[in-house]
Write a sequence for this structure.
């Protein structure tokens, strides 16, 4: 860190302008709307805490918060660990057809939900799906992945599809981060006979921790805002996605653009914001314990 | 592309010349700008109609605002909030009813009384009328349901075709007869167990004598045993395997593909889907009859539709111009174009000859046209329709479709929730 | 993995990697496969991976349905301008946050993170109102200008990357008498190539696939972007093969950009010869 402080302001100026001109007003506006009755047409009418209380009283809100928390709890660690492992493997000098593998593992990121949703709901099909057929080979009873009585099964299935979709992006970030690991260090470690596992945990991981930290934060934020994966697998909000597997962003979208109830939508959005913020600050608090900046 | 451009240039020239002529005669109408919102662009509203309107109304300077059909909702919501919406556009009829309640839509009752001879139209013209007599829009088109049957399947099974006199009991009986299983594997189903509102749970509750809401559209009828009975019949068909289930439909390419390929013999099919059938399954031999009769001997033909509305915030001149456009849309000439598209039914009686003589499959289009004349019903639409029908759909999915809870439990839950929505928005 | 890794372990590794790759790639392959099917073959059971007959007419139909050349050009112009903006502004801001200790540093950082946490659905309309105030509806400005002011994702990515570079770099440059802008342009920017190329890919992807922005802000058809144009396909009751042809058309440029960028984001310090 350096004491030429004014340079800090100069370099960050573009973003400060961005915040003041484009980000502040929408945030303040949506906060204001959460205290009003607003149907997008008639002027907002101040109703105090009514929206907040109504949202908090709704079973749907608590179910959706429960679901999205479990969703994040499954999604974030699996996706981060898997992305790290695969990035590490695909960064090995000795691996053949590296570029091809790197492409293959990135393809889900670019595959539109339009296609991915069809294929995954087909694979998850209870009676005719590939997954249950495969399990059947081992005598395992079919599981109704997307419409199971237990919401945990459904949320887990969806979270895993989201891992499939999002892993490639984290992998690329980590791959970029791994380029900071000096090749010579790895080579000398190999000469010293360090095992692959040791290289991974003792040399690569510490250097990449800032990127791992970032991947974790980003996937946490995106997990709590999960939306596309649900629409992709269930085919749209109007198909009547079960309340047992709803997540907040679906209800926010429904309330704002289908029902034109911006007040409850904004209140829900802000409640969700506070949850995400708390978790991110929590992660940031522990950052110093394991993230090594040079 | 080039052809279109030259036609466009020609039209522009035509407009210019005509306006000069008009000016020359000194009987100019004041020039006025009209913004028309077209969700789905010319794929949903024939370009012919717009071009003809522009050509015949030189004093109206038309600006077309297009948006993809499915994404129009968020665009128009943003525009309404920003006060930049078009002067006239269309959306689902139920959405228009909501707009009416919020003040977005202009009441068209006075315009209709002034300029239209309502006898020339079917009752569907008033799809967007409230119990209080306000009319929040006029139909872009109407889309009813009829009973479609795969002729090949019936012939192979040696079962006589359905008729207009069928009841739902006949439907169920025949569906059982046509169902074929090979061991545990279903080879063919009698009927598509659709579960969406229009061709699924709504006709089933209506035929049993029930309904979603009462006549005033302020009370939930899901505590009516007849409503529950209708849902149970649909569930029973799916459970006992003579109606298709959701897994089968999804794994075999969706309702239409299952029906077209003969994996199911019958289907409640919306009028618009004939276009998909023609495009995707031109070889299937199929036809339609009217929806079966209900237990009380009545016929109920569920219909949905899109409805034009005029923005209440448009200027006075723009409102008149917008109404001019809607009058044009409801004219014989344009209604014939609507009829010829095959994707929706016009509301003007004169255009029905075009529909019925189209000569495309299904040949018996009277099942649709006479069907709505006899028993066309909206889906109990009111201003909160979008909200309550989602609640119903959720519970129908849980019970009728996936069997996670019993139909009785679902109905009780629906009744509670729907009534709460209705009460909240009184 | 090195020369002393036992053969069976290597084999196992390849088998696992390939099995994983199959799962990753399958929906993509299905998309391409379906886009090449005739109408009759779509619902065929069991589906064929290599359609018979192969039918390229879906692409032709899509091509003719939308104003293809125009939309593609528009998309590339917007994406190009956005990429330039995002790469420059994000790394500038990130450099500022990573290298200088100033009072509001922490606040700006948390605000940056927080902007990612507010669901877009509730900020969309007020953002639209801002652009309406600027009187630039139905122009590309709302789609381009924000990139030049630094987005949270890009800043975060560049910040983390720059923080993991050896800090001796900065200190020795200061001793050599280099000014902060000089250090940024001459040392940090070139060294950040892996992160920049990753950010380039993500920016391309984000802007290219963005349909909400163009949908809301653009009115005139000649200004449309390719993905927005292709959304119109859904308006019509088109079959799955056509939809997938459209999806492939949108996806391919992203794949190409990824392939082009790939060798850059896996080539960092190691190959530039600097040591920590």
């Amino acid at each position: 860190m350096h004491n030429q402080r004014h340079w800090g302001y100069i370099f960050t100026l573009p973003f400060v302008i961005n915040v003041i001109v484009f980000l502040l007003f929408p945030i303040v506006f949506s906060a204001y709307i959460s205290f009003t009755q607003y149907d997008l047409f008639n002027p907002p009418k101040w109703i105090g805490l009514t929206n907040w209380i109504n949202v908090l009283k709704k079973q749907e809100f608590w179910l959706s918060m429960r679901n999205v928390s479990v969703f994040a709890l499954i999604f974030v660690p699996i996706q981060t660990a898997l992305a790290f492992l695969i990035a590490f493997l695909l960064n090995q000098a000795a691996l053949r057809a590296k570029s091809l593998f790197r492409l293959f593992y990135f393809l889900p990121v670019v595959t539109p939900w339009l296609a991915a949703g069809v294929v995954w709901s087909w694979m998850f099909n209870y009676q005719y799906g590939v997954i249950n057929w495969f399990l059947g080979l081992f005598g395992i009873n079919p599981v109704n992945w997307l419409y199971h009585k237990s919401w945990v099964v459904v949320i887990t299935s969806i979270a895993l599809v989201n891992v499939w979709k999002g892993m490639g992006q984290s992998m690329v970030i980590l791959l970029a981060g791994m380029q900071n690991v000096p090749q010579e260090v790895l080579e000398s470690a190999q000469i010293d006979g360090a095992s692959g596992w040791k290289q991974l945990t003792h040399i690569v991981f510490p250097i990449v921790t800032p990127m791992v930290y970032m991947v974790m934060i980003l996937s946490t934020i995106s997990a709590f805002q999960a939306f596309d994966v649900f629409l992709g697998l269930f085919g749209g909000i109007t198909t009547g996605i079960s309340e047992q597997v709803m997540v907040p962003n679906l209800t926010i979208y429904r309330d704002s653009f289908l029902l034109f109830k911006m007040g409850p939508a904004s209140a829900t959005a802000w409640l969700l914001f506070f949850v995400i913020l708390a978790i991110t600050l929590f992660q940031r608090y522990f950052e110093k314990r394991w993230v090594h900046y040079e | 592309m080039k052809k279109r451009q030259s036609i466009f240039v020609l039209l522009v020239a035509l407009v210019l010349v005509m306006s000069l002529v008009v000016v020359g005669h000194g009987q100019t109408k004041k020039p006025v700008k009209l913004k028309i919102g077209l969700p789905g662009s010319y794929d949903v509203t024939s370009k012919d109609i717009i071009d003809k309107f522009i050509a015949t109304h030189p004093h109206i300077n038309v600006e077309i605002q297009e948006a993809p059909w499915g994404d129009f909702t968020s665009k128009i919501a943003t525009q309404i909030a920003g006060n930049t919406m078009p002067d006239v556009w269309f959306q689902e009829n139920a959405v228009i009813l909501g707009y009416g309640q919020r003040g977005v839509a202009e009441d068209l009752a006075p315009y209709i009384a002034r300029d239209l001879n309502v006898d020339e139209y079917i009752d569907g013209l008033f799809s967007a009328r409230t119990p209080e007599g306000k009319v929040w829009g006029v139909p872009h088109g109407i889309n009813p349901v009829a009973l479609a049957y795969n002729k090949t399947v019936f012939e192979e099974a040696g079962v006589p075709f359905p008729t207009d006199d069928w009841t739902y009991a006949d439907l169920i009986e025949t569906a059982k007869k046509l169902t074929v299983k090979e061991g545990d594997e279903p080879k063919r189903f009698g009927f598509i167990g659709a579960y969406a509102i229009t061709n699924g749970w709504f006709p089933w509750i209506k035929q049993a004598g029930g309904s979603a809401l009462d006549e005033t559209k302020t009370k939930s009828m899901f505590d009516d045993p007849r409503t529950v009975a209708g849902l149970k019949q649909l569930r029973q068909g799916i459970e006992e395997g003579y109606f298709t289930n959701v897994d089968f439909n999804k794994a075999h390419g969706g309702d239409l593909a299952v029906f077209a390929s003969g994996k199911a013999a019958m289907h409640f099919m919306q009028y618009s889907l004939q276009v998909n059938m023609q495009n995707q399954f031109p070889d299937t031999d199929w036809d339609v009859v009217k929806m079966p009769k209900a237990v009380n001997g009545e016929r109920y033909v569920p219909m949905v539709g899109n409805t034009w509305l005029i923005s209440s915030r448009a200027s006075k001149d723009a409102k008149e111009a917008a109404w001019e456009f809607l009058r044009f849309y409801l004219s014989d000439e344009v209604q014939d174009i609507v009829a010829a598209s095959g994707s929706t039914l016009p509301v003007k009686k004169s255009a029905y000859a075009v529909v019925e003589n189209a000569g495309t499959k299904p040949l018996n289009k009277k099942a649709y046209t006479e069907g709505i004349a006899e028993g066309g019903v909206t889906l109990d639409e009111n201003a909160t329709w979008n909200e309550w029908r989602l609640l119903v759909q959720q519970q129908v999915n849980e019970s009728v479709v996936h069997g996670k809870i019993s139909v009785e439990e679902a109905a009780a839950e629906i009744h509670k929730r729907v009534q709460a929505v209705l009460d909240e928005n009184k | 993995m090195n020369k002393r890794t036992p053969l069976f372990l290597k084999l196992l590794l390849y088998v696992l990697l390939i099995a994983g790759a199959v799962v990753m790639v399958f929906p993509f392959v299905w998309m391409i496969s379906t886009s090449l099917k005739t109408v009759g073959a779509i619902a065929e059971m069991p589906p064929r991976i290599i359609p018979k007959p192969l039918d390229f007419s879906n692409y032709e139909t899509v091509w003719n349905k939308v104003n293809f050349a125009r939309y593609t050009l528009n998309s590339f112009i917007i994406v190009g301008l956005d990429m330039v903006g995002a790469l420059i502004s994000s790394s500038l801001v990130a450099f500022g946050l990573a290298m200088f200790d100033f009072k509001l540093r922490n606040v700006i950082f948390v605000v940056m993170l927080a902007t990612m946490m507010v669901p877009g659905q509730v900020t969309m309309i007020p953002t639209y109102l801002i652009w309406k105030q600027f009187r630039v509806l139905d122009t590309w400005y709302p789609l381009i200008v924000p990139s030049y002011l630094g987005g949270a994702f890009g800043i975060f990515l560049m910040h983390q990357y720059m923080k993991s570079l050896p800090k001796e770099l900065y200190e020795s440059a200061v001793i050599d008498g280099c000014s902060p802008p000089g250090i940024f342009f001459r040392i940090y920017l070139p060294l950040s190539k892996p992160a920049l190329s990753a950010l380039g890919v993500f920016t391309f992807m984000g802007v290219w696939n963005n349909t909400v922005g163009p949908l809301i802000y653009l009115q005139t058809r000649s200004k449309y972007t390719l993905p927005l144009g292709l959304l119109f396909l859904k308006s019509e009751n088109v079959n799955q093969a056509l939809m997938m042809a459209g999806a492939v058309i949108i996806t391919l440029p992203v794949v190409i950009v990824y392939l082009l960028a790939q060798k850059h984001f896996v080539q960092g310090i190691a190959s530039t010869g600097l040591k920590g």
Remarks:
- Chain C has two domains: 7-55, 67-272.
- The two ends of chain C are 23 Å apart (CA to CA).
- Residues 7-55 of chain C form one domain.
